[in-house]
């Protein structure tokens, strides 16, 4: 198991926000993190990415506690795409993607043809080649989101952590992004609100509720009407159709 948390907790201002989560990231495929607003998904992603230190327990990368690993090594290994990217940056879209190459460059390392090729490929995979020269500050919310994802891809991480990456994206770009995640052949952990997207695109789901991980496994086994009712407080029915199971809400 290359990335896992072992009973990780995080407390802020006396409030327990993440409560003893033991999560195993599968060796391949897409792990969807689902749960109501405020259930701790973003906080857990930040702990897993080493951006935040836990108050108890550990995050392990290849069995090594993440807080014993240097920043650059973590960044060559893990990329986190957060919900809110800053807006006051005087860079082009391509420059933002190029930032993803920083952890791979030594102190004296210059910009190589390979770096440029990786940046161009990341722009192409996210459908942003035509906007490469545009100023970051003028991009729409959805375009910024795709550029942040391109930056993360340029990092060539083994684990890609994404916090609601479909936010701001229109339906075509949501589906393109989810298909892209499936095609990456890397470990992806993605917080999603749309349970039908989690059902259709994730190899596994992990369900957070009030700071705790309450279930993890195959979407069709975990996202039952009973669990959805308990965790989200809504009535749901699983409908089995020709394209797989769908969740209907009442
Ligand atoms: N730095 C902080 N200090 C205090 N409380 C915080 C902090 N960050 C988050 N919280 C609280 O922790 C809880 C979990 O927040 P988190 O953002 O992890 O949830 P989430 O599941 O990602 O929510 P959402 O689906 O709304 O994005 C929330 O109640 C939030 O207000």
Automatic annotation (TrEMBL):
<keyword id="KW-0813">Transport</keyword>
<protein>
    <submittedName>
        <fullName>ATP-binding cassette domain-containing protein</fullName>
    </submittedName>
</protein>
<dbReference type="InterPro" id="IPR003593">
    <property type="entry name" value="AAA+_ATPase"/>
</dbReference>
<keyword id="KW-0067">ATP-binding</keyword>
<feature type="domain" description="ABC transporter">
    <location>
        <begin position="3"/>
        <end position="235"/>
    </location>
</feature>
<dbReference type="GO" id="GO:0016887">
    <property type="term" value="F:ATP hydrolysis activity"/>
</dbReference>
<keyword id="KW-0547">Nucleotide-binding</keyword>
<comment type="similarity">
    <text>Belongs to the ABC transporter superfamily.</text>
</comment>
<dbReference type="InterPro" id="IPR003439">
    <property type="entry name" value="ABC_transporter-like_ATP-bd"/>
</dbReference>
<dbReference type="InterPro" id="IPR017871">
    <property type="entry name" value="ABC_transporter-like_CS"/>
</dbReference>
<dbReference type="InterPro" id="IPR027417">
    <property type="entry name" value="P-loop_NTPase"/>
</dbReference>
<dbReference type="Pfam" id="PF00005">
    <property type="entry name" value="ABC_tran"/>
</dbReference>
<dbReference type="GO" id="GO:0005524">
    <property type="term" value="F:ATP binding"/>
</dbReference>
């Amino acid at each position: 198991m290359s990335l896992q948390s072992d009973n990780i907790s995080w407390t802020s201002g006396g409030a327990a926000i993440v409560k003893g989560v033991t999560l195993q990231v599968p060796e391949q495929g897409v792990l969807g993190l689902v749960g109501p607003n405020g259930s701790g998904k973003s906080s857990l992603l930040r702990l897993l990415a080493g951006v935040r230190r836990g108050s108890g327990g550990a995050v392990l990368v290849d069995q090594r506690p993440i807080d014993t690993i240097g920043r650059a090594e973590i960044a060559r290994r893990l990329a986190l795409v957060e919900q809110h990217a800053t807006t006051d940056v005087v860079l082009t879209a391509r420059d933002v993607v190029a930032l993803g190459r920083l952890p791979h460059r030594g102190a004296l390392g210059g910009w190589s043809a390979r770096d440029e090729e990786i940046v161009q490929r990341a722009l192409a995979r996210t459908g942003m080649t035509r906007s490469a020269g545009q100023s970051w500050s003028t991009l729409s919310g959805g375009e910024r989101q795709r550029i942040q994802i391109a930056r993360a891809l340029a990092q060539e991480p083994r684990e890609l952590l994404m916090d609601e990456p479909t936010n701001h994206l229109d339906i075509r770009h949501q589906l393109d992004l989810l298909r892209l995640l499936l095609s990456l052949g890397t470990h992806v952990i993605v917080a999603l609100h749309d349970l039908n997207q989690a059902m259709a695109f994730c190899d596994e789901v992990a369900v957070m509720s009030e700071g705790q991980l309450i279930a993890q496994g195959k979407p069709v086994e975990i996202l039952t009407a009973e669990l959805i009712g308990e965790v989200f407080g809504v009535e749901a029915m699983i409908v089995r159709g020709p394209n797989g199971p769908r969740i209907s809400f009442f």
